[in-house]
């Protein structure tokens, strides 16, 4: 039987789950429907461990009204984590004491994420934040990955670092590393030693 929390049957990683992550920032995983049942999805690691992290399912026809309301709430400072382009230059994140950072992370393949932004005018209105990874991605669980791109959980780790929470970033990174380390053994049906 798979573990009811982490979903792994042969290599439960619940022992590695950080118990006391904190963050003043809020995180929204705007998830493409195709991501929901993928066992390679790392957004679930953030959703399990970060206190202000929630998943919202993207729908082209029906925009998420609750999220759109939150984005316009003056107590939040919303950001879309997405590469800049000529029309939408990236801004540097500047924390403010008066507002809670609210990071919208597109939880999708890059191809799907581009489509989500293109087909969602309400997303295009958000200031863009792009990350410059300090190291190569550790995520190698899908084909057609482009060098320099981070998976969802790695983006969350980078945002924790960006918001000056290095201990929280390190705890989430350790959990992510455990997930990556045992994933292939788990999927091949044997216990990792």
From TrEMBL:
GO molecular function: tRNA-uridine aminocarboxypropyltransferase activity
Coiled-coil zones: none
Protein name: tRNA-uridine aminocarboxypropyltransferase
GO biological-process terms attached to the record: tRNA processing
Keywords, sorted A to Z: S-adenosyl-L-methionine, Transferase, tRNA processing
Biological source species: Photobacterium indicum
Enzyme class, broadest EC rank: transferase
Pfam families noted in UniProt: DTW (PF03942)
Assigned EC number: 2.5.1.25
InterPro entries, alphabetized: DTW, DTWD2/TAPT
Residue ranges of domain DTW in the record: 1-188
Keyword Disulfide bond: no
């Amino acid at each position: 039987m798979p573990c009811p929390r982490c979903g792994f049957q042969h290599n439960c990683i619940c022992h590695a789950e950080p118990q006391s992550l904190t963050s003043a920032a809020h995180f929204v995983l705007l998830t493409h429907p195709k991501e929901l049942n993928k066992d390679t999805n790392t957004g679930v690691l953030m959703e399990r461990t970060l206190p202000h992290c929630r998943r919202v399912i993207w729908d082209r026809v029906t925009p998420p009204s609750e999220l759109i309301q939150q984005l316009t709430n003056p107590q939040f400072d919303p950001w879309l984590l997405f590469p800049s382009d000529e029309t939408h230059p990236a801004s540097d994140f500047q924390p403010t004491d008066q507002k809670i950072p609210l990071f919208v992370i597109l939880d999708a393949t890059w191809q799907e994420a581009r489509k989500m932004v293109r087909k969602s005018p309400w997303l295009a209105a958000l200031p863009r934040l792009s990350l410059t990874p300090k190291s190569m991605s550790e995520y190698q669980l899908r084909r057609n990955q482009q060098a320099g791109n981070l998976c969802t959980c790695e983006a969350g780790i980078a945002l924790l670092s960006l918001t000056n929470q290095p201990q929280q970033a390190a705890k989430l990174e350790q959990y992510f590393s455990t997930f990556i380390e045992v994933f292939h053994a788990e999927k091949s049906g044997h216990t990792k030693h």
